[in-house]
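Q: Please design a sequence for this.
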């Protein structure tokens, strides 16, 4: 095996008929005679040149190739070890050393119908550009459940947009029955589940949405002409990977509130508020 240095500064460790070329780097001789060795494959279809990055990466980053031999440091996707949860509007600051973040956005659940008035719709949750430019991701709130005194329809689940995966919230159940056999609608679920149960032939207030974005359950009043009220719709949900981020930049976060339950002698259940999760 020969080592050749040509006039262009290229060092070549040639292979032989029995072994490939190798580059061996020994340790300090005071510490022993061990070494680190790099070697070529035994067979190479065509010449390959790897170009190293011009600067070191940050802790936890790995080398990646562009497919043409240019190497660079990057933060690997997946394997997230930390999370920041927003249940109220605020600002997310991209952590040091992180260029990829997974985000989950859920809208607020709609309020269930009361025995006198409709509930109200859940609010929309979203993320949008701060100092970091991103495409806006929005998860709409679920719509309201109707009152037994009017039209006791269940609320429609919220939609979403801008994510890699956009999911619609579950629809609330409609109220039905009369006199002693009243049945209120259950609140629709979000991607986290948690729609509030609708009441069954019981003159009392209904249950609130149990999980982020869950719709509130409808109420019942057995003396009403249309006894069961509708449940609120579940908030929509969106999941996305944000890439090529700059640590220290910010992303604006808006959290949709849960809709209020309808009023009356027996109120509908309130929808659960929305949420935004950042995993990194």
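A: Design:
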């Amino acid at each position: 095996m020969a080592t050749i240095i040509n006039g262009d500064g290229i060092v070549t460790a040639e292979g032989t008929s029995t072994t490939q070329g190798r580059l061996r780097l020994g340790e300090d001789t005071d510490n022993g005679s061990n070494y680190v060795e790099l070697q070529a494959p035994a067979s190479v279809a065509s010449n390959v040149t790897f170009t190293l990055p011009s600067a070191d990466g940050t802790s936890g980053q790995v080398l990646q190739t562009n497919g043409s031999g240019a190497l660079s440091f990057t933060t690997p996707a997946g394997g997230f070890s930390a999370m920041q949860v927003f249940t109220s509007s605020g600002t997310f600051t991209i952590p040091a050393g992180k260029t990829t973040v997974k985000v989950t956005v859920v809208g607020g659940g709609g309020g269930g119908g009361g025995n006198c008035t409709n509930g109200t719709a859940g609010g929309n949750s979203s993320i949008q550009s701060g100092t970091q430019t991103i495409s806006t991701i929005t998860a709409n709130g679920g719509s309201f459940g109707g009152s037994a005194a009017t039209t006791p329809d269940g609320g429609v689940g919220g939609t979403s947009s801008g994510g890699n995966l956009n999911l619609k919230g579950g629809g609330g159940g409609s109220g039905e029955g009369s006199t002693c056999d009243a049945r209120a609608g259950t609140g629709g679920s979000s991607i986290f589940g948690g729609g509030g149960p609708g009441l069954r032939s019981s003159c009392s207030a209904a249950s609130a949405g149990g999980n982020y974005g869950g719709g509130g359950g409808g109420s019942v009043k057995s003396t009403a002409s249309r006894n069961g009220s509708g449940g609120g719709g579940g908030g929509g949900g969106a999941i996305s990977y944000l890439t090529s981020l700059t640590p220290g930049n910010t992303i604006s976060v808006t959290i949709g509130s849960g809709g209020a339950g309808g009023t009356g002698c027996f109120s509908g259940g309130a929808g659960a508020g929305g949420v935004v999760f950042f995993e990194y």
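Q: Thanks. Anything notable?
A: The two ends are 48 Å apart (CA to CA). The chain has no helices and 16 strands.
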